[in-house]
Amino acid sequence: MDTNQEKGVLGFSKVQVATAVALLFHIIGLVGIFFNKNFFIQASSLNLLLMFLLIMYTHKDKNRSFFIFLSLAVVIGIVVEIIGTRTGLLFGNYEYGTALGVSILKVPLIIGINWFIVIYCCGVSIHIILNKVVDKLTEITEKKKPIIKLLSVVIDGATLAVFFDWLMEPVAIKLGYWKWAGSGGIPFYNYVCWFGLSVLLLFVFHKLEFEKKNKFALHLLMIQVMFFLLLRIL
Predict the structure, then answer these.
(1) Distances from the Cα of 202 to the Cα of 8, 72, 150, 152, angstroms
(2) Alpha-carbon distance 199 to 47, whole Å?
(3) How far is residue 113's CA from residue 212's CA, in Å, rounded to a whole number?
(4) Measured distance CA(65)–CA(15) in Å, rounded
(5) What secondary structure, in 3-state letters, does the chain show?
(6) Which of 83, 123, 152, 229 is 20 to 30 A (C-alpha) from 163?
(7) pTM
(8) Taking 80 as the threshold, does the pLDDT of residue 5 lie above it?
(9) Cα distance between residue 55 and residue 49, in whole Å
(10) CA-to-CA distance for 37 and 30, rounded, in angstroms?
């Protein structure tokens, strides 16, 4: 049975239910920031946690490999952020504010979840979008093209992750999630590190065998892109 056909509530599929919930909470957050900025900024970590739970709700066949990837993404995300904030060797010189909740060594724990969400959504989105193209190419040439799938998911997914970070950075700074040292400008080195680490995590994502056709991940990525794009514009 396809993930989209799994029943959620009131006859709607799990993907439809999760997409509706994610869209509703992002709309509420977008509007709320303009009326009660402090409250909704402090609630950001809860929103990220909800998105994580919706991914868990919609992801089909959560096997051992899926949880290995989940654990690696969260742990690596937190570790590289600790290294980054304490040494400046990764991303540049920056520090987190208090808006994202409970921290370990001055890095909010929810950031690990955010790393998972971003990498998972980018990986799944690229997998869904490009899978048909690669399969068609395989059908035409009568040869399997595993290297094409690998490069598509890893390189294109990492590029998408960097684009998302580029879109999010100015908004996150204005909302007080984190700030950069010196003039406060975002260093190009930040995006270089994002790309490199995304390549690493997406390589693991591609190699581990678990379901990668969760359409909610694609929907969530589009919702978050629109959310940060509107905040940048407004």
Answers:
(1) 29, 11, 9, 10
(2) 26
(3) 18
(4) 22
(5) CCHHHCECCCCCEHHHHHHHHHHHHHHHHHHHHHHCHHHHHHCHHHHHHHHHHHHHHHCCCCCHHHHHHHHHHHHHHHHHHHHHHHHCCCCCCEEECCCCCCEECCEECHHHHHHHHHHHHHHHHHHHHHHHHHHHHHHHHCCCCHHHHHHHHHHHHHHHHHHHHHHHHHHHHHCCCEEECCCCCCCHHHHHHHHHHHHHHHHHHHHCCCCCCCHHHHHHHHHHHHHHHHHHHC
(6) 83
(7) 0.90
(8) no
(9) 10
(10) 10
pLDDT per position as a tens digit, 119-159: 999 999 998 887 666 666 655 555 556 677 777 788 989 99
Q: Are 48 and 110 in contact (CB under 8 A)?
A: yes
Question: How many C-beta atoms lie closer than 10 Å to residue 168's C-beta?
Answer: 21
Torsion angles phi and psi, residue 201, rounded to 5: -70, -35
Q: Which residue has the tokens 């959560």?
A: 62
